């Protein structure tokens, strides 16, 4: 996003002064911004002017009206708004930090220079671009009930979420919610979530009213089968009931996303702050959920590498993050590039047994090992090894639908050969698309399976051939008996 | 409260005075009360309205030409704060 020209940043649209366009324009400038419009000259007039009168405390400027009925608690809760407080930054760094108070003070100062500048505020969402991207009025000071996505949401959340959502990462499609349904951030991230919950949270995933897939997408039940105009179709695919509460939605429906590595901050010779991060990389990793909660019980979640290093603050103080191993560097993530079909949900075996998808020790550097030990996934034996109780496991895995045996409607997966390999095989009725078979049929009873190249010993048969076979045997016996009887009669006559 | 509200009150005042004047009971006193109310309301809100619409802030900040002139001079007089050349990678 190109920065605004200096004059554009402070140019007020005359429409702002029209009450029908924006009621805020009826309040005198100095009421919110301070300064002295009576003073002679620009400098004197701007003395004491607050560029953003809503930061850090919005209760005075916004709260005068937005504490009342109609806007309850917005201004009051603002202090717990994570966009404003950036509280998780401090908490997560301090979790890793050296306990020495002096070191912590230095870290706090360094964070003030480098990390805490990325905050927002009421004004920096609804009136101007955030200061961290050089600010500037949006729509000539006309207040925007919903902040524009490009100038305000993705101007900060651009490198990862913005690019993922809009499909700006090479070779990776945009999120289906954007591409097919033209949804903006606010469709999922409501004002209620954005304005702070009134509670102190360790991170944004603790906020109770955060965006959740389940808010729209519900599992299909006997009652809920029909498509809802807003929520779409209920989830009928059996994978949803099989993986519910075990695997996060993104594990099956997200695609490659950006991971960042290392971060070092400091000041150059001119005293200007800088940061250095290593090249980012597109990848997709499934890790263990280190913080399972009632509303996020999944064991497997997508994890993203965050730009952190144990030497992050070395420029300011050595050994700043002596407890770097206290928090993982592969962090729970909700990539914003959701697709209906993804490489890992093509088939069951695209994920089960595909070790490359899972976070292991190979994905961490030496200092990160301990930090991520609870995120690493202990790999299980390959599927053909786990199914070695079968006669020919590889053949079964290649030819059979997993769901035929791992049927969610069954109490446990099929483990008895005879359930399939016998005349009244469950495949006659359980196999996908199996019709009602008649044993008087003149074709294969499991012709659908045969068409897919799946011959099931003991199950596939042509009933007519059985009848013909039996008839031949009976006729043979009958022929022999007749022959014997005729010979017996002819001998008696002689 | 602003321009539209005051316009609305004036309209109500006019409507009421018209009705009372046609009823012909205590016309003078009622008219007087209505005018006092209107003038009081406007006098309270006038400075805010005036400030918002005609203050020196508005005069400058709604004029592209004035802002261009002022900011050009300002930019020239202040050292430009550049981003550090040592920054590297994605933020």
Task: Name some characteristics of this structure.
heterodimer, A: 494 residues, mainly alpha, three-stranded antiparallel β-sheet, two-stranded antiparallel ribbon, 22 helices, elongated, B: 91 residues, 76% helix
Give a verbal description of the structure.
- The complex is a heterodimer of chains A (about 500) and B (about 90).
- Chain A has about 500 residues and is mostly helical.
- Chain A has helices spanning about 5-10, 30-35, 40-45, 65, 75, 80-85, 85-95, 100-115, 125, 150-155, 160-165, 175-180, 185-190, 190-195, 240-245, 250-255, 385, 395-400, 400-405, 425-430, 445-450, 465-494; strands at about 255-260, 265, 275, 280-285, 285-290, 300-305, 330.
- In chain A, the strands form three sheets. In chain A, strands 5-6-7 form a three-stranded antiparallel β-sheet. Chain A has a two-stranded antiparallel ribbon with strand order 1-4. In chain A, strands 2-3 form a two-stranded antiparallel ribbon.
- Chain B is an all-alpha fold and about 90 residues long.
- Chain B has one domain.
- In chain B, helix 1 (about 5-25) runs antiparallel to helix 2.
- Chain B has helices spanning about 5-25, 25-55, 55-60, 65-75.
- Chains A and B meet through helix 1, helix 2 and strand 3 of A and helix 2, helix 3 and helix 4 of B.
